[in-house]
Amino acid sequence: MSLSNEELKSILEHKIALLENSHKEEKNISIEAVNSIIKVLGLPNDFSPLAHRYFQLHTPPSLIWLHLSECTGCSESLLRTSLPDFLDLIFDFISLEYHETFMSASGHQAESHLEEILEKKDFLLAVEGGVCAIDPFFLTIGAHGENGYEILQKCAKNAKTIFAMGTCSSYGGIQAAHPNPTKSIGISKVLEEKVINIPGCPPSDVNIIATLCFYILFEQDMALDEQNRPLAFYGKCLHDLCERKAEFEAGNFAQSFNDENIKQGYCLFKVGCKGPYAYNNCPKVKFNSKTSWPVAAGHGCIACSEENFWDDFGFYEKPMSNEFAYNDFSITLNNKVVYNASSNDLNSQNILLEFSNNTSIFYQNETKTNFLDFSFEANPKVFLNNFAKTKIAITLVQNYQEQFKTYYDFIQTNYNDESKISNNIQDLFYFIYPFICGEKLKYIDEFLNLALAYKFKHPSKFDFKTTINEQAKIDVSKSLRMPLIYILGGLDKEAIAFGLIFSLKEHLKQALKACKNKHNKEQILIHSNNETLLKLFWDLTSI
Ligand code: FSX
Ligand code: SF4
Ligand code: F3S
């Protein structure tokens, strides 16, 4: 469990008080470096003087850094730190006792030093690289012919904390790409001890150092996500932090790597940027002493900190569209007999997700009440004409009009000017279809089959907003621009349909959970007059 800032502060104050009494010699520590570490950790500014004092007084803890299956990029990244400077880091903040590459010239002396440190059982362990656990001989290291798996086990046994530095160590890495001939895997798969994952191929020096510093300062766990990644670094979608995001919103996409507009800041989505699917803080912390990061340098993000990025995101330089799929993650529909409930089944123990006419979540107390507010402008022409108000929105519509002229003209000539406010999720499919196909949707299954045909597992999300009060309100209206952005960005209609279904499910899940908890219900039922829809959303009944 992660501690509150107040608790962390009192731990630090207590540790400083003990050190102040021990009359230790003070080290010269850069306050800028400490400020930068505190900032990236997301801690308030008043931690800086405390952390600075602590680093002045503390005895740097020993760090062992192992190399398993990898390219040494993580160490290269670390070497380029400037705040703190690398030498200050390895002498004043930590004590780097063993690092296979940096110490290679020391040969057997480095190896015997490693043994000494291991015996003291008082060290942090950073591991760079994946491990070959099934056929360990694929990674045989050093004059004694030890294999990586044995070295890892030997070191992990007595480490105080274990860090998987980089994507290889966290998830297997590039060498684990299909068909993974060496059967490389992330170290947490073979260790019983807890492992903190710092993925990235490589991770930034900032994320590596800030993680180490957090554990040195507090000797506590950071707040981690379900993949044991620190939330402070991996909690936000990279795309939302990107300096090119406004251009994405305006549909200003670089068309190729020769496109001069890349220099003007155009978005790189159409040339393969996977930023919308990556969770990392690269735009904030950057690389090479904060000089740049991939997207600033003109190449899209390849989602290098995500599990299986090497196999799961298609080509690096194309958006994830079926045309470029070499994996097939298509959704398999639940083909078991599913129970199509009706209003008659509603009772005091259950709630009913109703898909026909008005999409509703009904619950029964004294009366039958609808928990869901879901309404939007369902006339594509009215939406288009009302939407183009801000500079970004005007540019988006202009881009759409220019690049998808026949689709744009189809909408302008085939819809009237009357607003149609709908509460029906199915109307969303009728709304979106002409934007991505340039014709009217004839029947619901045509849209659902597009989503089912998509061959990647990572959704291109719609940024709906769900707020929970007396009712749950799923606000889709601000997200109705997404089909225009995505189609301009080179996503195919299958990807867009899949993204829509995925996002709807995510938000319905939040609403259903809230209704179930607020009204103390046990079970979720579902009704639809369309069987495919029923099966697609069936898993919501098991929340
Ligand atoms: Fe390389 Fe590190 Fe990638 Fe892996 O970085 S940059 S292959 S994450 O283990 O050296
Ligand atoms: Fe930035 Fe890539 Fe998102 Fe475009 S798609 S805004 S380049 S992260
Ligand atoms: Fe990796 Fe993307 Fe950052 S490729 S380094 S997660 S910008």
Q: Report the portion of residues in β strands.
A: 5-15%
Q: Quickly give the CATH architecture of the largest domain.
A: 3-Layer(aba) Sandwich
Using the alpha-carbon principal axes, give the shape: elongated
- State mean pLDDT (0 to 100 scale): 96
The bound ligands are: ligand FSX, iron/sulfur cluster, FE3-S4 cluster
Number of domains: 3
How many strands, what sense, and barrel or not for the largest sheet? 5 strands, parallel
Secondary-structure-derived class:
alpha/beta
Tally of alpha and pi helices: 22
Termini, distance in Å? 25 Å
CATH superfamily of the largest domain: NADH:ubiquinone oxidoreductase-like, 20kDa subunit
Low-pLDDT runs of 5+ residues are: none
Provide the helix percentage. 25-40%
CATH class of the largest domain, named Alpha Beta
Strand order of the largest sheet: 2-1-3-7-9
Question: Would you write up a description of this structure?
Answer:
With 543 residues, the protein is an alpha/beta fold. The chain has 3 domains: 5-218, 3-Layer(aba) Sandwich (Rossmann fold); 238-318, Cytochrome-c3 hydrogenase, C-terminal domain (Cytochrome-c3 Hydrogenase, Chain A, domain 2, Irregular); 350-541, ATPase, nucleotide binding domain (Nucleotidyltransferase, domain 5), CATH 3.30.420. Helices cover 38% and strands 12% of the residues. The strands form 6 sheets. A 5-stranded parallel sheet has the order 2-1-3-7-9, sandwiched between helices. It has a 4-stranded mixed sheet with strand order 12-11-10-18, with helices on one face. Helix 1 packs parallel to helix 3 (47-57), helix 2 packs across helix 3 and helix 4 (73-79) packs across helix 9 (205-218). The radius of gyration is 27 Å and the shape is elongated. The mean pLDDT is 96. GO terms for molecular function: 3 iron, 4 sulfur cluster binding; 4 iron, 4 sulfur cluster binding; electron transfer activity; ferredoxin hydrogenase activity; metal ion binding. Its cofactor is [4Fe-4S] cluster; [3Fe-4S] cluster. It is found in: Cell envelope. This is [Ni-Fe] hydrogenase, small subunit. Keywords: 3Fe-4S, 4Fe-4S, Iron, Iron-sulfur, Metal-binding, Oxidoreductase, Signal.
